[in-house]
Amino acid sequence: MHTASTQTPSGAGPDFDSLRHRLSGPLYEPIDPHYAELATPWNMAVFTCPAAEVEACNPQDVVESVKFAAANGLPVTAQATGHGVASDMAGALLIHTRALDECTINTDTQTASTGAGVTWKTVLSECEGLGLAGLCGSAPGVSVAGYTSGGGIGPMARTYGAASDRVRSINVVTGDGALHHATATDEPELF
């Protein structure tokens, strides 16, 4: 584990050590060996250079990261696989969600509960032999969260509709760093 101090003179930028101590997962800065791995998106033609990266291990890591970014005036971006990466990450705090990879299939309700880092490949593998399938796109390496929050228009949309129309609930961290559980009836505006 890298333990170098990132104390900065006043006005020289955020003190990432103060965030690092509040996280369960690691935080990487450009000097860290794993920084390039997380900063490199699926489309390697897009260059990204976030100020730092958090590899979130749980929802509280996301909460702490968003609160820190807000307190320090940093833009925030999140990615699981890098398929929907934007090139304007310069100076942003990147929250990488690949470790949030829980996936549970409920055969009674025919639903999947997925963490922010789960890909469609995982969902499809979990559904194998159950007579179920997810409303995924054509690329199984794309994250469920990114695909669905972008609308989720795939090959099965004409028959079953957009994946986003089938969401029953979502756990989301808002810009103020609050974790919410939203459904159509509980926090419907956020949902």
Automatic annotation (TrEMBL):
Domain of life, per lineage? Bacteria
Per UniProt, the keywords (alphabetical) are:
FAD, Flavoprotein, Oxidoreductase
Q: What SUPFAM superfamilies has UniProt attached to this entry? A: FAD-binding/transporter-associated domain-like
Pfam families linked to this entry: FAD_binding_4
Which InterPro entries did the record assign?
FAD-bd_PCMH, FAD-bd_PCMH-like_sf, FAD-bd_PCMH_sub2, FAD-linked_Oxidoreductase, Oxid_FAD_bind_N, Oxy_OxRdtase_FAD_BS
Q: Which family does it belong to?
A: Belongs to the oxygen-dependent FAD-linked oxidoreductase family.
> What is the official name of this protein in its record?
Uncharacterized protein
Q: Which organism is it from?
A: Arthrobacter psychrochitiniphilus
**Lineage of origin:** Bacteria, Bacillati, Actinomycetota, Actinomycetes, Micrococcales
